[in-house]
Design goal:
The complex is a heterodimer of chains A (312) and B (372).
Chain A lengths: L2 H18 L27 H9 L3 H4 L2 H20 L2 H6 L1 H16 L8 H7 L1 H19 L9 H5 L2 H4 L12 E2 L3 H23 L9 H7 L7 E5 L9 H5 L6 H4 L16 H5 L6 E5 L2 E5 L2 H13 L1
Antiparallel strand pairs in A: 2-3, 3-4
Chain B lengths: L19 E4 L7 E8 L8 H9 L54 E10 L17 E5 L5 E4 L1 E4 L2 E8 L3 E14 L2 E13 L24 E6 L3 H5 L1 E2 L3 E8 L2 E2 L4 E5 L5 E5 L5 E5 L16 E11 L3 E3 L2 E3 L1 E13 L6 E2 H29 L1
């Protein structure tokens, strides 16, 4: 099975459904744990982070009352979806991830080398996404309870590059602006444009560059140990050839080095399954859903894919 | 525009207004106006209303006490819903009446409050209506087109209605008063105020391009329907937008109907509808202020149309020769976002960042090659 082709197909379908689906009444709601930007006109399904930030910007008594129930429903739904598909939301569904993968494919076509950060840097920058997740929770709480200016409303959405970029795919430039009305909005919206400007060139040489700093991945990583979809490694079968690490778009070193742990859905893993596909050792890496094997590494499959690559 | 989860996000800073404005049949000069203004989080009126209050402080023609205005009003015991053909049991909102209204409050719903104002638009925006008769009925049309009757409550010197908003989508406040017969005419007042709430939208109904009535038990006889180009316009009407409207009488386009747009500063433009009952108004900037930008500062604009039908009848012992219909559609207008947003600067930053980012990558790679 060519998992990467299947993944590309799923990504493309998801992309069309989420970005353009609303025009034909497709609506997956606005509690999705994926970067389908709610600022896109008639979006087919929206990222739950914007709702989370808005719901949190309420006084504590309201949050402890009926609004708290709403908040729980919101987080509960996103968490449930996170448990079911785990980080496949990032690797298989996320529109922003799909765009980055397309840029990577373009780079491959042109034949430009990719860039790799040193492992120490990867580890250091991992925490950025957790900081962003904490800020997008704490700042709205401060708005509702500590009198922080409402210019900080939905802080992450104001600085998210998806907000100016994704509406462009529908010819909508309304979100492509810098907001001069206050210092916080000026800083945040400028940051969004800067990140959007970096998105294309950096994605061109660094696979899934934005995902490394994505607070959605940080949220999903809270559930990676209980996710129904899982990535398992048999350390006894691994020869540490490094093929999986080279294939990994998130440059996760543990996938190669880990010999003891069986669950390899680490905090940066997006469950793209490229590591499984690239592994030449039988059953060294296995993708399971509810404990049932859905895809596994095999020498035969590896050789088949290699021969196809050579033919191409 | 964004659609948030779970609804109940208040439309920030938007005042909900429902307007009933009618020229009485006896004298054109006598005008009664009534509308609702949302009570915001802090229990204050929206900024626009506070400004209007400042403007008219000291009294004005619109601040007349409404005493005596109800002389022609009756509250017959018979069914007054015939002209609206509302579902049974919808006779909830009568002035000063008690009882529970607003429908069942389901899980997670948020109650909104709106004050009722009376007087002459726009001057009487200063003061909510307190005393005097009020014989109109109010409904909330929810995104699923369900009509919820609203109860008018007395709150100190003020009257208010409460209504629940739960899901996201398009809501309408609707008022109707059809009790007055004078000078051989029966007067029907229809008033609408549409607003959009962010949140989970129940099905496709919300993706219509206009505030369609969708009355389950029938349709209002005279209606102003507003069309929108996109959700952003629907969520917030802004200065510079075009308000595209259609006047319908008994569900059909009404050609050559007079229709006017009046702003909070009393600027007015009058047009006639075309053969399809349509008209377009550009939403002007009506106030120029120095000082910091207030993105949520709004102004209330009012659309109004009238129609007369020669249809003799008898309303609870009061004969009339014709029916006069007046419909209003009120909406809040926000400032033009171009006052604080710049696309040009964004494009410049974007291009600059892309070029610098690209150049940095190329430079780094060249250095590596040189070292190697």
């Amino acid at each position: 099975m060519n998992v990467q082709r299947l993944r590309l197909l799923v990504q493309a379908i998801s992309f069309v459904l989420l970005i353009y689906g609303g025009a034909v009444a497709i609506d997956f709601g606005s509690k999705l744990p994926t970067f389908s930007c709610a600022f896109v006109e008639d979006v087919g399904g929206g990222c739950f982070l914007i709702a989370l930030q808005h719901q949190l910007a309420r006084p504590l008594p309201a949050l402890l009352g009926t609004m708290g129930v709403t908040l729980l429903v919101l987080i509960g739904t996103a968490a449930l979806l996170a448990v079911v598909l785990n980080k496949a939301w990032c690797g298989w569904i996320c529109p922003v991830g799909f765009l980055q993968d397309l840029i990577t494919k373009l780079r491959n076509l042109i034949g430009i080398d990719l860039s790799r950060l040193p492992w120490s840097s990867v580890k250091r920058y991992r925490s950025v996404k957790y900081v962003l997740l904490a800020l997008l929770i704490l700042l709205p709480l401060a708005i509702g309870n500590l009198g922080l200016s409402r210019d900080w409303t939905a802080p992450f959405c104001q600085m998210c590059p998806a907000r100016p970029l994704l509406p462009l795919l529908k010819g909508d430039t309304s979100e492509f602006h810098v907001d001069f009305s206050s210092i916080p909005t000026l800083v945040l919206t400028t940051l969004a444009i800067v990140l959007a400007g970096l998105f294309v060139p950096v994605s061109f040489v660094k696979r899934r560059f934005f995902c490394s700093y994505c607070p959605m991945l940080a949220f999903l990583s809270l559930f990676d140990k209980v996710g129904l979809l899982s990535l398992r490694k048999d350390g006894q079968r691994c020869t540490r050839c490094g093929s999986c690490y080279r294939a990994c778009p998130m440059e996760i070193r543990e996938i190669e080095e880990e010999k003891v742990k069986t669950n390899l859905v680490t905090q940066d893993c997006i469950l793209c399954l490229r590591c499984v596909e690239s592994c030449p050792e039988n059953k060294a890496l296995t993708a399971t859903f509810l404990g049932i094997e859905v895809f596994r590494a095999s020498e035969a499959g590896f050789l088949e894919r290699q021969s196809k690559k050579t033919e191409q | 525009m964004p659609r948030f989860s779970s609804g109940r996000l208040p439309v920030l800073g938007i005042g909900l207004a429902l307007l009933l404005q009618a020229t009485t049949v006896e004298a054109v000069a006598e005008t009664r106006t009534m509308w609702l203004g949302l009570v915001d989080r802090d229990g204050q009126r929206p900024s626009q209303e506070r400004t209007a209050a400042d403007r008219t402080a000291g009294g004005g023609p619109g601040e007349r006490a409404p005493a005596g205005q109800g002389a022609g009003m009756r509250m017959p015991s018979g069914d007054r819903g015939a002209d609206m053909r509302m579902p049974s049991g919808d006779r909830a909102a009568r002035g000063g009446s008690g009882g529970e209204g607003g429908g069942a409050r389901s899980h997670g719903e948020r109650m909104q409050k709106a004050l009722i104002y009376e007087g002459v638009f726009p001057q009487a925006n200063a003061r909510p209506a307190g005393a005097g008769p009020l014989d109109a009925r109010f409904w909330l049309e929810r995104p699923d087109h369900r009509l919820v009757p609203l109860t008018v409550r007395q709150e100190g010197p003020r009257r208010r209605v409460e209504f629940p908003t739960g899901t996201g989508g398009d809501y309408r406040l609707i008022g109707y008063d059809g009790d007055r017969v004078a000078g051989g005419s029966r007067l029907h007042l229809y008033a609408y105020y549409g607003f959009m709430m962010h949140g989970e939208v129940p099905g496709k109904v919300q993706r219509d391009t206009a505030y369609r009535p969708g009355f389950l038990g029938g349709t209002p006889r005279l209606e102003i329907v507003r069309f929108f180009d996109n959700d952003g316009d629907r969520y917030r009407s802004r200065v510079g937008h075009t308000a595209r409207v259609q006047v319908l009488f008994e569900g059909k386009p009404l050609a050559n109907a007079p229709i006017s747009l009046t702003t909070s500063q009393d600027w007015q433009r009058r047009l006639q509808t075309d053969a399809d009952g349509k008209a377009e108004f550009t939403l002007i900037k009506e106030e120029f202020r120095d000082g910091p930008i207030d993105k949520n500062r709004t102004a209330l604009f009012l659309l109004q149309t009238e129609h007369v039908e020669d249809s003799p009848g008898n309303y609870f012992g009061n004969p009339y020769e014709r029916e006069r219909f007046v419909a209003t559609l009120a909406f809040q207008v926000f400032p033009d976002s171009n006052e604080w947003e710049s696309k040009r600067v964004a494009y410049l930053i974007f291009v600059f960042t892309t070029l610098v980012g690209g150049a940095a990558i190329v430079t780094q790679r060249l250095r590596r090659r040189t070292r190697a």
